[in-house]
User: Which sequence fits this backbone?
């Protein structure tokens, strides 16, 4: 099942582009831009409703993005990679997750955006932007997509796994808006931040491990 083909090229340029986009997005959010306000209202009007089945799904599924769950999943993935002697991939996983979540904590306390002033369907504390659930899930499942591309040989199995991994952060982000604990701009910002760190982290992996190898 191991993929022996040439790995994807360096992702520093797309990573830098995502970083610029994220910076612009964070500035718009922190400045209280009318564009962000309109964006949030439009998405909330599309997503939110009082459907009992949707409420049950959102309040349960959102727990998969909790910090402690993401940390446990990261540790398990890290150990599995070590057991199979994929040391570079293990430290790529740990380093990228640590950097993304550490940076997220800094940005949250720098911007200090309050959560939506409505009834929350689940408990949530701390500042709102960016969504920690979205950052953590986008980073972890983005890493899983990278590892799938690098390690899985079967094109069919690879495609199925990539779609499967991609669904998780999308659904978790959806639940954060649906449960009223985040604005849509928080979630989008979290996704962009997570993708940025996955791409920049892969650039380091590529230059220091894959390319020399």
Assistant:
């Amino acid at each position: 099942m191991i993929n022996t083909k040439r790995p994807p090229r360096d992702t520093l340029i797309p990573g830098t582009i995502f970083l610029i986009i994220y910076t612009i997005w964070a500035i718009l959010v922190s400045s209280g831009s009318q564009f962000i306000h309109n964006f949030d209202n439009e998405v909330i009007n599309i997503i939110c409703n009082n459907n009992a089945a949707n409420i049950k799904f959102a309040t349960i599924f959102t727990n998969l993005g909790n910090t402690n769950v993401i940390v446990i999943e990261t540790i398990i993935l890290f150990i599995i990679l070590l057991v199979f002697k994929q040391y570079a991939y293990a430290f790529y996983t740990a380093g990228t997750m640590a950097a993304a979540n550490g940076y997220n904590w800094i940005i949250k306390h720098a911007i200090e955006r309050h959560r939506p002033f409505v009834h929350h369907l689940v408990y949530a504390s701390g500042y709102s932007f960016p969504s920690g659930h979205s950052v953590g899930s986008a980073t972890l499942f983005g890493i899983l997509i990278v590892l799938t591309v690098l390690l899985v040989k079967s094109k069919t199995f690879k495609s199925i796994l990539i779609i499967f991994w991609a669904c998780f952060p999308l659904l978790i982000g959806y639940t954060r808006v649906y449960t009223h604990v985040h604005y849509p701009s928080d979630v989008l910002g979290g996704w962009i931040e997570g993708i940025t760190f996955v791409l920049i982290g892969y650039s380091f992996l590529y230059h220091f491990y894959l390319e020399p190898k």
